[in-house]
Design a protein that fits this description.
Elements: E1 13-15, E2 45-47, H1 53-60, H2 67-75, H3 79-94, E3 97-101, E4 103-106, H4 135-144, E5 152-155, H5 165-178, E6 183-186, H6 189-199, H7 203-213, E7 217-218, H8 228-234, H9 241-253, E8 257-264, H10 270-287, E9 290-297, H11 313-326, E10 332-333, H12 337-340, H13 342-348, E11 355-358, H14 365-368, H15 379-388, E12 392-395, E13 403-405, E14 410-412
Parallel strand pairs: 3-11, 3-12, 4-5, 5-6, 7-8, 8-9, 9-10
Antiparallel strand pairs: 1-2, 13-14
Helix pairs in contact: 2-10, 3-11, 4-5, 6-7, 6-9, 9-10, 11-13
């Protein structure tokens, strides 16, 4: 027989609106530059989960969350409370603005010496479907997506066993010569470390030569999950987590900004995700070189891990929210629509995300892993998604400077 208490609604815990909390109480690394359009929330914070009360206390006081706080957040079922807190921080930083850019993805080769169990993109050199672009082919690919006044080329590929370092220098310098106004965001930390090893150069020398050729910044891929137990299963042929962080540290030291990612929804646990975020935050305290954090939902189709389930919408929006709460020193959190789907990415704009990525034109890596999202969206579609989420779309360049367009040209605010 059910008791009376078992039929009662869950107890709810309330906080008054705290959007104007004195920033003087801020903890180390917390946000202190409130967006001028963010004045106060329209309703009080409430939660069904009393474990979130200490987390909310810290958020309202601008205090840094600990690893234990992050694990608590991952284990909480109250996604609306987490979303409210993350949205509170997001609006404190960015008001109602949501960023996007007009970019084009270029994947010069899918040939890869690694055999990562998480990957459906890489091929052995002689395998069916393997390809490597000649330089002129790469330049033609870049030009084919240039009709929308692209401001960024996003360039990543496999770890090719035979391509010399000079190929990448010529690729970067050739693109810069042909498209001087386009920002070249190219080569993950994994690719940089691989090229350095093949060329018998230090990481710093490798990066300096690429920068001299025209490299402007680095993407954030290849981070996956830093925990070595997990990496041994999903990507044991890649550099380890500490090497990834050290490569990023070196890039930041010589003036190259980068993004950072986390691949979630495979064999990792809550502690692994929390640890990953904390390690990124620690490096950001030191270098201030990360611009954006991008949580990447794992797509198991066509990989050796295809027996795993895909991520749920609940986990996707929770990951966005917790990223915003923990990474207090990262300026931006991106909802990468290609992996989340445009619909989940749109909802994420109310769960801590302030960026939807870009038009992309053609995306290969995640679509080889079974992603069913479009391979590209036009600017009007991105603006519609943002506006229907109640946000204000702002086109940006890679450095988050607003792009102002006319019918025939565009200018970047500096």
């Amino acid at each position: 027989m059910e008791s009376f208490l078992e039929n009662q609604p869950p107890k709810r815990y309330y906080f008054p609106s705290m959007a104007n909390t004195d920033p003087a109480a801020s903890g180390k690394g917390s946000e202190t530059n409130a967006h001028p359009s963010h004045e106060r929330q329209l309703h009080a914070f409430q939660t069904d989960d009393p474990r979130l009360l200490p987390v909310a206390d810290k958020v309202f006081a601008h205090q840094r969350l600990t690893l234990e706080d992050a694990v608590t957040a991952y284990r909480s079922p109250d996604i609306l409370a987490l979303g409210w807190l993350a949205n509170h921080v997001r609006e404190r930083l960015h008001g109602n603005v949501t960023y996007f850019n007009v970019n084009r993805h270029i994947n010069p080769t899918n040939v890869c010496v690694a055999a990562c169990r998480l990957c459906a993109f890489g091929r052995k050199k002689d395998a069916p479907g393997a390809y490597t672009m000649a330089l002129e082919e790469a330049f033609e690919t870049a030009a084919s997506g240039y009709s929308e006044a692209v401001t960024e080329f996003h360039i990543v590929g496999g770890l090719h066993p035979d391509l010399p370092f000079q190929y990448y220098l010529d690729l970067i310098s050739g693109l810069k010569a042909r498209f001087p106004q386009v920002h070249l965001k190219a080569l993950t930390m994994v690719e940089i470390a691989f090229l350095a090893k093949r060329a018998k150069l230090s990481i710093e020398d490798t990066l300096r030569q690429l920068k001299q050729a025209g490299l402007d910044s680095l993407p954030g891929g290849g981070a996956e999950i830093f925990n070595e137990r997990v990496r041994r299963v999903i990507c044991d042929h890649k550099i380890d987590g500490e090497q990834w962080l050290e490569t990023a540290r070196t890039a930041h030291k010589i003036g190259l900004k980068s993004n950072a990612t986390m691949l979630y929804g495979h064999i990792e646990n809550d502690e692994d995700r929390a640890d990953h975020l904390i390690r990124l935050r620690t490096l950001q305290d030191e270098t201030h070189g990360f611009q954006t954090f991008i949580p990447l939902a794992f797509h198991p189709a066509n990989t050796p891990l295809q027996h795993l389930f895909t991520t749920t919408g609940m986990l996707d929006v929770k990951q966005i929210a917790i990223s915003r709460l923990v990474l207090d020193n990262f300026p931006h959190i991106k909802a990468y629509w290609q992996m989340l789907s445009p619909k989940i990415a749109q909802i994420s704009l109310r769960f801590g995300a302030d960026d939807l990525d870009g038009t992309v034109i053609e995306e290969k890596i995640y679509h080889d892993a079974g992603a069913t999202t479009p391979q590209g969206l036009v600017r009007k579609e991105l603006e519609r998604l943002i506006r229907q989420a109640g946000r204000e779309p702002v086109e940006r360049d890679t450095m988050y400077r607003p792009v102002v367009r006319t019918e025939t040209s565009f200018t970047i605010s500096v």
